[in-house]
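Lecture 7, part B: from sequences to assemblies.

Below are the input chains for today's worked example.
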Amino acid sequence: MDFSVLRNIISRYCAGEEYWVDSRTVYIGHKEPPPGAEAYIPQRYPDNRIVSSKYTLWNFIPKNLFEQFRRIANFYFLLIFLVQLIIDTPTSPVTSGLPLFFVITVTAIKQGYEDWLRHKADCSTNECPVDVVQQGTVVRTQSSKLRVGDVVMVREDETFPCDLILLSSSRDDGTCYVTTTSLDGESSHKTYYAVPDTMAFKTEQEVDSLHATIECEQPQPDLYKFVGRINIYKEREDPLARPLGAENLLLRGATLKNTEHIYAVAIYTGMDTKMALNYQSKSQKRSAVEKSMNAFLIVYLCILISKAVINTVLKYAWQCSPDRDEPWYNHRTEIDRGRHVVIRAFTDFLAFMVLFNYIIPVSMYVTVEMQKFLGSYFIAWDKDMYDEELGEGAQVNTSDLNEELGQVEYVFTDKTGTLTENNMEFIECCVDGHVYIPHAICNGQILSAASSIDMIDSSPGGYRREHEELFFRALCLCHTVQVKEEETVDSIKRGIHQGKPTSFYISSSPDEVALVEGMKRLGYTYLRLKDSHMEILNKDDEIERFELLHVLNFDSVRRRMSVIVKSSAGEYLLFCKGADSSIFPRVVSGKVEQVRARVEQNAVEGLRTLCVAYRSLSPAEYKEACYQLSNAKLALQDREQRLAQAYDLIERNFTLLGATAVEDRLQEKAADTIESLHKAGMKVWVLTGDKMETAAATCYASKLFRSSTQILELTKKRTEEQSLHDVLFDLSRTVLGQRSLSGLSVDCQDYGLIIDGATLSAVLKPSPESSGSGNYREIFLEICRNCSAVLCCRMAPLQKAQIVKLIKVSKEHPITLAIGDGANDVSMILEAHVGIGIMGKEGRQAARNSDYAIPKFKHLKKMLLVHGHFYYIRIAELVQYFFYKNVCFIFPQFLYQFFCGFSQQPLYDTAYLTLYNISFTSLPILLYSLIEKHVSIETLKRDPTLYRDVAKNSLLRWPVFLYWTCLGLFNACIFFFGAYFLFDNTTFTSNGQLMTTNTQMMFGNWTFGTLVFTVLVFTVTLKLALDTHHWTWINHFVIWGSLLFYVIFSLLWGGIIWPFMNYQRMYYVFMQMLSSGPAWLGIILLITISLLPDVVKKVLCRTLWPTATERAHR
Amino acid sequence: MASSYNAKEEDGHVAVPGGGTIQNKKPDNTAFKQQRLPAWQPILTAGTVLPAFFVIGLIFIPIGIGLYVTSNNIKEFEIDYTGTDMSSPCFNCSQSFSWNSTRPCTCALPFSLEQPFESNVFMYYGLSNFYQNHRRYVKSRDDSQLNGDTTSLMNPSKECEPYARNEKMPIAPCGAIANSMFNDTLDLYYIDPNGTRIQIPLMKKGIAWWTDKHVKFRNPGGNPNLTSAFQGTTKPINWRKPVYELDTDAENNGFINEDFIVWMRTAALPTFRKLYRIIQKKNNMTPTLPRGNYTLEVTYNYPVRSFEGRKRVILSTISWMGGKNPFLGIAYITVGSVCFFLGVVLLIIHHKYGSRNNTADIPN
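Predicted structure of the full complex, as C-alpha cells:
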C-alpha cells in the first residue's frame, strides 16, 4: 500500500513535470475524478482577479521612475543632472533638474492617472456579481472569487466573467449565441456549442451531478484557437472523451445573447484568460522621422562633445601660464589646487558638457510626444472619415506613426473587403456547363432570364437532372450559415422574408450567405439545423432532411470546406466547395472542361468563383473517415496538423458538379482613391488570395491597371512553359530595355505586373545553385520598381507579409503601408511600416492589429494626402526648429568661452537657461506643430501630386538639416558678435542713458547675456512666425503671448530682491537695459539682420524654384 | 477633449472593457476639430516682401546716419597709464610694485585736449586683459552679505572661497571681486595757460545704478556707526583700508560706496571700462573741460603687469544715445542699404520671374 502511494506520488510528480506541463486538467465543480482514472495533477491557478494596472500604491514611484529612466534620453538628462550635482558646475543643477523633474512628473502623473483608471476598471470588473453553482444551488459571489472548475450560470446579456466551457444552455440544441463586440468588434452573433453529452443538464441540480474533467492546453492568446478534451465519468462506465474546440469556449468579455441562460465551467481565470493575454504590447514601430531625429541627435551629441573637447583643450592651452590660470585677483581654493591636473581637466570637460548640454533639449522629446498624442486626435475627430452606416470614424491605435502617413511609397492593399465591398451577390451558377441565373425576386417568383441561357425549368436529361439536384443540395448543405429567427433586428444582415418571422442567414463569410440566398432564389431554401439535421425546402415545397455528420471547416490553406451528410435515404454524401485550384486536382469525374471554361470566363469578369463537387461514401469509407476525424480532433498535440492530414485523405475522388459566381462590388470611390495614390507617387500593389483573372478584373475596374498598361505576367502558367530564370530575364529585358530606349521621352510605357503565389515563392526561395540565390530576388525587385502597379494573386497570408518585407528591406528602404480588413491581412499589417485596418465585415482583427483603422478604403485618400502631409510638415518643422533654436541658444555661450578665459562662465542667467525651452519658446512651436496648414485641405485633396513634395523624408534630409543648422549658427554669431561690438568697441559698455533718472549705468556680463537672450527669444519666435502659413487666433495668442510672457517674466525676475536666493545678479538688469536707447536700437537691428537671410532665401526659392505646393497657393 | 476618444493607452495596455460604452462616436463638426479655424494666411512672396524691404531701408538709413553723426560728435580722450614703456612716467611705479609697500607710488601724466569738452564729462578707468567674467571670479561674492545680512556678514558664503576668511575672521566684503577692487586714485589738473595747476572737481556720487545703491547694496545692521557694524570682520586681503573707511561720507561708505558698487558689477568682456567720476558742467558759458593742457595724477596701487594688463583713463562726453558708438550707426546704415539693395534685386526678379510663373500656372 505504501508502495503504491509512493508510486502514485512519483508518477504524479513526474507526470506533472514532464508530460503535462503544457496542458491543464480541470475538475468540473471541483469533484475529483474516480480514483485511478488519471494521474492527479495538482496545479495552482490564479484567481479571477483581473489586474490590468501596472502599479500599486507602493511600487508606483520606484517602478515608474525606473521605467522612465530606461528611456535613453531621460537617462542622459539624469546623467547631466547628476554631474551637475557632483562637480562644481557653471550652471546650477536646477537648470537641468527642473525641466527633467517637470518632464518626469508630467509623465508620471499621466501614467498614474491612466493606471488609476485601470485600477478602477479592474475593481469594477472584479467586484461584479457572478452566479456560481454550488451543491446544486446558485450562489451569488464576486467575480474575483471565481476559481477554475467552478460551474457558472450566465444569464442573457451578461458578460462572461472568465473563459468558460459551455456545458448546457437553455436552448434545446445546446447552443448559445454570443457577441464578441468588446473583444474583436464583431457585432454579429456567433454560435457556440455544448458537448452533446452535457447539453442535457438543464438545472442546477443536474449540472451539479455532472462528474467530468476537462483537459486543455495551457492558456494562449490566440482568440480563435482552443484545443481540449472533456472526460465524462459515468458510473461503471469507461470515461467518455469528447473533443473541445474554439466553438465550445466562451471568452471572457463576450456577451451572451438570445439565450436565457447557460451553464458553463471556468477553465481560464483572471490573467490566464485569452482577453488578458491579448493585452500584451505589440512590437513598437518607429517612424522615419524618428530615425532622422535620432540621427540628428547623434550629430548634435558629436557637436556637443567636440565643443566640450575643443574648449577643454583650449582652456589648458590658454592657461598654461600661471598668470592666466591664476592671476593675483582670482586664486583657486586650496582643495581645487590640490587636485591632479587630469582630474581637473576631466571635471572641466564635464563642466563644458553641462554648459552646452542644452543643445539637446529635454523638452524636444516631450513636445514631440505631445504633438503626436494630441495631433492624433485630429484623425479621430475628422468627420470626413466618419462612416454613417458603420457609425464609426477613424480610429488611432498608435500615435507614433502620424507623420509616416505622409511618407508612404508603397501601398499594399487587400482586395476583398478593402477594394471591394465584401458585400456579395450571387450572380450565377453553372452545373456541368449549363448556366443558371437567378433574377431579382418579384413577388416571390423567379423571372426567366435571357433566352440564350438554360433555365432551371427547362427539362433536363436524367443525368443532368441528378447532378443539378445534387448541386443545389450541395450548396444548401455545404456551409456554416446559421439561421437566426428573431424579432429584434439589431444585426445588419439582410433579412429574408419567410412568412411571419423574419429570419436571417448569419455567417462569418459573406460568400456563404450570398450562396445560400442565391439558392433560395433558385428555389432551394435552407431552413435550419435542428437536432443535427439540416432541413431544406426544395423546389416542390417539400422538406428534405439531411443528417449533418461532420463539418470539415474552411481554412485558408486548403481553400475549401466540406460536409458529410446522411440523406434520408441513408446515403453518405460528402459535399465540398472551394477554390477551383483546390478542387480540380481532386476531381476524378464530371465535366471539368466546361466548368473550367465557365469559371475562367467569370473570373475575367471579376466574379468570385467557387467550385462544387461531391463524393458519395460507402458506409465503410464513412466509418474510416469518421475514425480519422475523431482521432485527429481528440489529439491534444498537433491537432491542426493531424486534422489537415485527415481532411486531405477524405477530400478526394470528387465528382465535379459545377461552379458558382458571386460578385463583389468595388467600394465607393476606390478607383478614385487609387488614382490619387498613383498621382501622389505611391506604388499600389494588390495582394489577394483570389485568383488571377478575378483579381485582374478588379484591378482594371479600380483603375490600378489602365487600358494602356502593358501587363507582364509572372505566373505558374508561364513558368511551366519556360524556366523561371528565362521568364525573369525576359521581363526585365522588356522593362529595362524599354526604359533605356525611351529614356528621354516623357511618357514612359506603364507596366503592370501580375505574379502568383507559387511563382513568388519560387522567386523568393533561395535556389540551391550558388550563383542564383539572391539573383532572382534582385531581378524581381528591379522589375517591380519599374512597374506602376503590381498584382499578387493566390497569396497566402504569410506570403503577403513576405512581399511587404521584401520591399521594406530592399535597398531604398521605402516606407510601406498595408491596408486590409480581414484576419488574413494581419500579418502584412503588422509587417508594414504603417498598418491600416478597415473596419470591415470580416471582423475586427485587422482593425485591432492595425496602427490606424478606417471605415472605408476611400478614407485612405484623406488619411494620407491630407493628414499624412500635414503631420509630416508639422513634425519636420518641429524637429528642425527645435535643433535650430537650441543652436541659436547654445552657440553664443560657446563663443563666450573665448572671451572669458574658457572658464565655463554661462552667458545667460540660470532662470533663462531653465525656462528657455520650457516656457519662452515651447508653446508657439507646439501649437504650430498642431495646427499649421501650409495649404488648404481642399488643395491637398484636389491635387494629389503635392504629396510628392514631402516624399522621401524631403524636409528632414541632410541638406535641409544643414541649412537650419547653418541658419542657427549664423543667428548665434549675429547675436553674440552684435552684442560684443555694442559692448566692446564703444562707450556703450559703461554708459548709456535715456530718459531716466539714472544718468549713467555700467553694463556688466549679465546685461550682456540678457541682451543676447532677448534678441534670441525674439528672433527665434519671429522666425517661427515667418514660417507660419496659417495664423489662427491660437497662433496669434501663443506667439505674441510668449513674447509678452518673456518680457513680463524678465521684469518680474529682475524686479525684486528674491529672498532665499544666494545671488541677486539679475536685479534690475532687464529694466536698466530697456532704459537705454542703444539697447533698443541694437535689439531691433540684430533681430532684423538675423531674420533677413531666411526671408530672402524664402522669397527667392518661392520665386525661382517654387515647389508644387507653393505653386498651388496662387 | 479626451471624451470622444477611445481609451488609447500606452504600450498596448487597454482598460478592461467593462461598462458598456455605447456613445455617439460621430465627431463634432467644430471648426477646431475639423481643422478649419478661420485664419490669416500670409505668404512671403517677392510682391509682399518688397515694400517691407524698402520701408526697412528707408527707416534704417536715416537712423544710421543720425546715430553715426551723433556718435562722431561725441568727444572722447583716452590715455594709457600702465607704464610698461620705459618712457612712461608710471614706469617706475609699475615696476616696483609690491602689495606690502606702505608708501603709495604716484606718477603724473601730462596730456592736452585739442578740443573743448562742452557738456558733462564722464571719466572712466579701463582695464584690459582682466578677466572679470571668469567663472570662478564672477561667482565669488555673497549678495546677501552685500545686502546687509548680518549672518552672512559673519559667515560668508562658501562661493567666496578662498577669499571668505582671513585667519578665521570673516572677510567683509568677501570674495575675489571685492578683494581685487580697483584702487588707483586718479586726479585731474588743468594747467592754466599761465602755468597754475587747477584741480578739476570730480563727482564720485551718481556713478552706480540707483537700484544697486539703494536696494541691492546695504550696510549691515542699520547701524550708523559702520565701524561697529563691521565689528568682528576683517578687510579683504589686498585692501589697504577696511570697507568702512572707503569714504568719509556716510552716504558713500561701506558697502554702498559707489566705486565699490561699480566694481562689483562684473564686466562682460576682458577689456572693459568702468565709470570713475563725473565732471559736472558748471555753467553754460564755459566748457567743462576747455582745450589746453592737463595733468593726470595717478596714485599707482593696482598691479596689472603680472597678467599683461593695461590701464587707461578715458574722458568722454555723452549724447542721447549714450557714449561714442560708431558701430551702431554703421551697422544701421549697412543693413538699411542691404535691404534697399535686396529690394531692388527682388523687384527685378519679381518682374522677370513672377509674371512668368503666373503665366506658366494657368495651364495647370
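Note for the exam: The two ends of chain A are 99 Å apart (CA to CA). Keep this in mind when comparing with the next example.
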